[in-house]
Write a structure and sequence with these properties.
about 220 residues, mainly alpha, Four Helix Bundle (Hemerythrin (Met), subunit A)
Length: about 220
């Protein structure tokens, strides 16, 4: 991962806005600011997003944020976003206001936060290595879409999805909510299903992907799948 300085002031401004909105959202939903692990989680997220704005190619970021893009599997993409919101919304309410299932022990929360951090960094490595990394599944002919096999793509074919599959349940436990683990695991299941769908699509539509699949055998976890 390399730091890119193009348009750095604008990107740092967006990061400051993100950090402020994240803090306000967290405090607003949870209703309190005296939970050490919640504050640690927000701080880690802000730090990871700072890493993201420093290493992600601005062209990739612009393309990811461009509206009106369509692609394969739109229903599952919408489901992923809704489950993501349910996960964090419930977790914040649970640990801050409701206390229905906020009994995750601290010795488990800390390793979960570490797992979340490492998974996020792994995903950022995937995004920084792949200039075609978009939320939608499509072949980007207008951008000269080619197979990416460098960095984490030399280990598994879908390293971004691998990171995201870990982040859901890890974030639920790091925040301290057993109940949020259910949407966290559902999020992981949706991500794995989407990875399988995207793999089939790219194998049939992206030139060179079938050969790449023969070289890099596993989609998510080496030796398993």
């Amino acid at each position: 991962m390399m730091i890119t300085t193009m348009h750095l002031p604008q990107r740092l401004g967006r990061w400051l806005l993100f950090a402020a909105l994240l803090t306000l959202f967290t405090l607003g939903v949870a209703g309190r600011a005296d939970l050490p692990m919640l504050n640690a989680f927000v701080g880690v997220c802000a730090a990871l997003m700072l890493v993201a704005v420093l290493i992600i190619d601005p062209e990739v970021l612009r393309e990811r944020l461009r509206r009106g893009q369509t692609g394969e599997d739109p229903g599952r993409l919408l489901a992923l976003r809704l489950v993501f919101l349910a996960l964090f919304g419930f977790a914040l309410l649970d640990v801050g206001r409701l206390h229905w299932s906020d009994r995750v022990p601290a010795p488990l929360q800390a390793p979960a936060l570490l797992a979340f951090t490492l998974a996020f960094l792994w995903e950022l490595w995937a995004v920084s290595a792949n200039r075609f990394f978009l939320p939608v599944i499509r072949v980007q002919h207008e951008r000269g879409h080619t197979v990416v096999s460098s960095g984490p793509y030399g280990v598994v074919r879908h390293p971004g999805y691998a990171g995201m599959a870990v982040m859901g349940p890890a974030s639920a436990l790091a925040l301290g909510s057993w109940g949020a683990l259910l949407p966290g695991l559902a999020l992981s299941g949706l991500i794995l299903a989407r990875a399988a769908h995207e793999d089939r699509f790219l194998r049939g539509h992206l030139e060179g992907y079938a050969d790449y699949s023969a070289r890099v055998r596993f989609k998510i976890l080496p030796g398993v799948w």
